[in-house]
Each structure stands twice: as C-alpha cells, then as structure tokens.
Amino acid sequence: MRLIRMGILAVSAAALLTLGACGAGGGQQPYDLQDAETLLASGAFDPSMGPVEPQAVAALYGLDPATVEDCVSYMATNTSVSADELTILVLTDEQAAQAALEACQARVDSQITVCKSYCPAAVPRLEGAVIRQAGRTVLLAVGDPALLPVAVDGLHT
Questions:
Q1: 44-55 burial: b if 16+ Cβ within 10 Å, else e
Q2: Position 4 in a domain
Q3: At 28, is the pLDDT very low, low, confident or very high (cuts 50, 70, 90)?
C-alpha cells in the first residue's frame, strides 16, 4: 500500500512539474506575429478591431520599449462597447517576457475594474482573457470566452 501511495505521489509531482514548465513557456512553441491573423479570423473577436501602432504598444502595457523587439496589436475601436484586444509581443529574452506577462495581467485586471462601471457587458470577456508566455513571446487575447481558448490552443497543433 505504501508503495502505491509513493507511486501516485511521484506521478502527481511529475505532472505538476510538467504543467509548471508549460505555464512558464517552457517547451511551448513561441508565438509568431502571423498567429494574430489566424486568431482574428477565428471569430472570437469584435470584428471592428483596429491595429495599434507598434510604437504605442510598449507604453500601453507599461513595458520598457528596449525590451520589445517586435509586436502586433489590435484593439476594439469602440471601447465603450467592447474591450476586445489581441497582442503578441516578441521580447528580448525570457526575463522581459515574464515582465510582459505580468504587465498584460495587470492591464486586464485594470480593464475589469474600469469596465465594471461603464461597459459591464465586457467584463466576462476580460475575465476569460487568455494570457500566455512561450519562450520570449507573450500573447494577450480578450474576446469571446467560448471561442478564444480553443482558437489559441489550435495555433500550434
């Protein structure tokens, strides 16, 4: 019986380590800027989203511009009715990517607070945001919570 318990604990520990590595970007294929087009075509976003100038993205997310090598970003054009956005960042290294991941989460948290008062219909979409790091890339996607996770998971399958 003790041997079975130890085996279960070992398998559980291995599973947790594997999940932890995936969540931190370990082993997952980095996001490509072209992934944004695939996601936009998925139907998970407000169709009126427009591009954000790359020079504005670092300021928008509170990032050090020197750490952003490349990016693509789209946001809802009418923020009084939609909080949808899609951003893929390519950072200088994984440490910068970790900082960007935290900044993206802080942005979503801030958007939830703001939208509760003037755009409550957007709150469930913000609460279902997908924020992921893969290597030195970070993806932030706010859209239809029923479609978005499937679309993001389908990028690298």
A1: bbbeebeebeee
A2: no
A3: confident
**Which amino acid belongs to residue 135?**
G
Amino acid symbol at 4:
I
| Contact of 31 with 135, CB cutoff 8 Å | no
Q: What are phi and psi of 124, to 5 degrees?
A: -60, -35
* pLDDT at position 18 over 80: no
In this structure, are residues 137 and 84 in contact, taking their beta carbons and an 8 Å threshold? no
Number of domains making up the chain:
1
Task: Write the pLDDT tens digit of every residue in 39-92.
Answer: 999 999 999 999 999 989 999 999 999 999 999 999 999 887 899 999 999 999
- Give me the sign of the Cα torsion angle 108, 148, 130, 128: positive
Whether 49 contacts 77, CB under 8 Å: yes
**Which structural domain, as residue segments, surrounds residue 105?**
29-153
Residues 6+ apart with CB under 8 A from 14: none
Question: Is the separation of the CB atoms in 76 and 85 below 8 Å?
Answer: yes
Name the residue with tokens 């991941």.
101
**In-domain check, residue 21:** no
